[in-house]
Amino acid sequence: MEQGQPSRTAFAAATHRAAHQLLEGGRVFADPLALRILGEDQETVRRKAAEDPLSRRMRLFIAMRSRFAEDALAAAVERGALQLVVLGAGLDTYAYRSPFGERLRIFEVDHPSTQAWKRHRLTEASIPIPSWQTFAPIDFERDTLSEGLTAAGFDPSQRTFFTWLGVVPYLTKEAIWSTLGFIAALPNGAEVVFDYSDPPDSLSPESRSSHDMRAVRVEKLGEPWVTHLEAEELLAKLLTVGFREVEDLGPPQIVGRYFPNRPISSEKGGHVVRAATA
Length: 278
What we know:
The protein has 278 residues and is an alpha/beta fold. The chain is built from ten helices and seven strands. The chain has one domain (8-276): Rossmann fold (3-Layer(aba) Sandwich). It has a seven-stranded mixed sheet with strand order 3-2-1-4-5-7-6, sandwiched between helices. Helix 7 (173-184) links the parallel strand 4 (160-164) and strand 5 (190-197). Helix 1 crosses helix 3.
């Protein structure tokens, strides 16, 4: 990410969410605010999707991970979660359409430049900031997650749900495990949903080609992919740091759950994970 500029990959993810509403009618993930907060007209969003040969696969994955996260969050609230932390929030709109109101306090964590951009987009789109939502701007070059959340009024004693979508591939393993360790150490239970990708060498030739094209694209944006993870190694380490329940959906499980009319294969690729400490 360029200094003083919002995340360009966050804008790309928001574009995919908006395109899913237009091109698939929000079939996998319905977000009535996705197009409004983006600030582009329907024709522009459709045109960008049509011009990008990689668009459909990526936007369906992004729609699926959002649906998975929000379904898991709803279940967690029913089990007693009182706080939601959206890590790397970008233009995520959950706080502005949450069905739980004051029952669920929401903290949006992101770089100060990206949050300033989002505030502008909210104003331009006439989307009000609700009383249950708090911005927690954190520059990780100067502040820790714990420090930033504490400054925003986060209560570590409350059961908390974290969403961390579209972020892990851009971080070092040290940064990933620092964040997961913080979540796992919260005293009264926590859950997190995040996504990751299998190592490029494990992909089929077709998937590897698509991966390499996307990797070049994000690197040109100044936000290169840094880390890929092995599912078995990830599971073992999640259990070691304190998570007790881990649900990891790889491509076959994702297709079976969200795209039942498509054939299931043993393809490698993107995963979405839910991990809980209790």
